[in-house]
Amino acid sequence: MVREKAVKSSSRYFPVRLMVAEQSDGLAEDVYLLKPNNSDDKSVELAVTHLSPLNVPAAILRNRPVLILLHGQYQNRNAFWRGAEQSVSRQLVSAGIDVWLMEMRGHGLSAVNTDFDTDTLADTARYDIPAVTRFVAEMTGERPVHWLGKGIGGGALLMSQGAGALLDLPVASLIGSGDPFGCAGWSRLPGLTSLVAGRKCRDELAGPEMESCALIKNLIVESRKLSRRGAAMGIDLWYQLRKASVPLAWISVDKTRDWSERGLRNLLQQGNLSVLDVTGESLDAVMSGRSGGGDPLRSLPALLDGWMNQDYGQEMGDGISAAGEVAPFA
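Now predict its structure.
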């Protein structure tokens, strides 16, 4: 059902239009289409969804921590949001968090841009994440913005930070989950890049969307043993992240911390990464909102609320290991 509501649908930074203004079982759903014009491909348009509770005073909403969710490989916003159905986005809003969802180029409600076939994760990191950060901060009164990325969504956040693309933007923290670069294990298969043919790649088991084969090839190449993560952006990613001024955290389910990306494990051991140890059946179940039971104080909404409302480096409560608190891997 379309809502009658006065919503801001412009920006002082770039063109923005309101695509959708609906309500779904107690939540307002506003979808904005951003046209940042900050890269060579001027056709890029990014869909950003804002979810907020109905009938809650604006003064209360303004005090909520701001969190932007970014989906993973072959996915879109449906990884976090399914309308009236139960979802992690609905749980986060109920926990008092101001929830926004970004969709990558050519995914979900974001249009397929002219140069989609040659897009890589570096484009998301260098251009799109900063643009969405700027827009959401503007819409929320310049409140500090937290990001949570799933899979390569988390990898894009790390690349954006490592390349300095978030400098001078109000980013409070970056949180990731799962494998940040998706193809770490694939790089050991000989001749794999030659098998990634064509312009677009699809994996129906991973999700409904297509990825550019250029993105997949770049992930595979940078996962090889002698390659450097971040080479596509001209940086040594893991070295740059050791100097990050923005707090970094990664989600672990029941303290398994079974990350295939060695760089993440090194950041933890070097004291540059905090861990949110959630309880749940699996990472996919936790990130989709399908994981039930367990300790409610260690649910994803509870830990994210604790993380976003604490003073970094101080006592963070059960389930959150501060940077520098190195725990053994299970």
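The longest helix spans residues 121-139.
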